[in-house]
Amino acid sequence: MKTFEETELCFPQLLNSSCRKTMRPYTFSILIYITLSSISLLTVTLNLLVIISISHFKKLHTPTNLLLLSLAVSDCLVGLLILFQIIIIDGCWFLGEFMCSMYFLLDYIITSASLGTMVLISIDRYVAICYPLHYSTKVTPKRTKACVYLCWICSSVFHCLVLKENLVQPGRYNSCYGECVVVVGHAFGVADLLLSFIGPVIVIVVLYLNIFVVAMTQARALRSHIAALTHEGSVSTNVKKSEMKAVRTISVVIIVFLICLCPYFGVTLSGQDAMLSASSVAFVMCLFYLNSCLNPLIYALFYPWFRKSVKQIVTLKILKSGSCDTNIMYTE
C-alpha cells in the first residue's frame, strides 16, 4: 500500500531523489489531456493538408507558397511536440535525460526556423509590392527553396551549439529525477535572443511598415485614375488587388504569430540564467502550439485555392492520374 507521499513522487522507489508531481484535481487533469490531445491532432491534420496541397499541385509551386510550405512543416512538427508536453503535464519526465535535451533542441530549432521563415515571407511580400517589375526575376522558386533550406540548416547548427553542454551531458542541471531542465550560457542566451527573436521581429516590422506605405500610395494613385483605366489597366488593377489580398493574409499570419510567440520569449527573458523548466512554460508553449493550429485556418479563410485543394484531398481526387496538373488557382 503506497503512502500519500509516495504517490506525489515521480519515481517513488527513489524516495528523496525523485521530483514531486504537480498535483491537480482528476477532472482538471483529464480536461488538460483532452484539450492538448485535440490541439495536437488538429494541428497535425490541418498542416498536413497544407503540406499535401502545396507539394502535390504544380500550380501552387510559387515562391510565396513554398515559404508557406516551410511554415506548415514547422507547424506540423509543433503539433507533434505537443505530445511531449502532454507527457510532462504532471511535472514528471519519464523519457530519459537525453530525450529531454532533444525535446528542447527541437523546440528551439522549430521556433527559430518559423521566425526565419516569417522573415523570408516578409522579404517576399516586400519585393512583390515595392518592386513588382523585378519580382519574377529576383524571387524564383529555386532561390526560395535555397533560402528555406539555408534557414533550417542555420537554425539547426546554431541551436546545437547553444545546447551543446546539455547534449553532451544530458540532465547535468536537473535537481531531481524526473525533472527536464536545460540551461543556456549567458553569451549564447543573448545571441539566441538577438538572432532568433529581436533581430527577425525588427526586420519584419520595418519591412511591413515600408510595404503598407507603398501599398497606400499605390491605392491612392489607382483611385485617382480609376475613371481613365483601359482594359489593360483593369487587368493591372486586378493584379494589384490580388497582391494586396496576399499582403493582408500574410499580415494576419505574422501578427498572430508574434502575439503567440512574444510570451514564450518573455518567459525566457525572465530567467536570470536563461533556465527553462519544461513544466513551468506549459502556458506559453500551449499559446505557441495554438498559433500552429490557427495558421491553416487563416489560409482556409483567405485562400480559395486552399479550400479547393482540401476538397480534392478529402474526396481522394488527388489519387487520379494527372491530378497534380489541375489548375487549382482557377476560380469559377
UniProtKB/TrEMBL annotation:
Question: Does the entry feature the keyword Cell membrane, yes or no?
Answer: yes
Pfam families linked: 7tm_1
Report one GO cellular component: plasma membrane
Please give the PROSITE patterns that the UniProt record associates with this protein. G_PROTEIN_RECEP_F1_1, G_PROTEIN_RECEP_F1_2
Note the InterPro entries from the entry.
Answer: GPCR_Rhodpsn, GPCR_Rhodpsn_7TM, TAAR
Keyword Transmembrane helix listed? The answer is: yes
CDD domains referenced in this protein's UniProt entry, alphabetically:
7tmA_TAARs
What keywords are assigned to this protein?
Cell membrane, G-protein coupled receptor, Membrane, Receptor, Transducer, Transmembrane, Transmembrane helix
- Transmembrane regions listed in the UniProt entry: 30-54, 66-88, 108-134, 146-164, 193-215, 246-266, 278-302
Subcellular location as annotated: Cell membrane
GO terms (molecular function) for this protein are: trace-amine receptor activity
Query: Where is it predominantly found?
Result: membrane
Domain called G-protein coupled receptors family 1 profile: residue spans: 46-299
Membrane topology, as annotated: Multi-pass membrane protein
Instruction: Name the domain of life.
Output: Eukaryota
Protein family per UniProt: Belongs to the G-protein coupled receptor 1 family.
Its protein name is G-protein coupled receptors family 1 profile domain-containing protein
Species of origin: Astatotilapia calliptera
Q: Which gene encodes it?
A: TAAR1
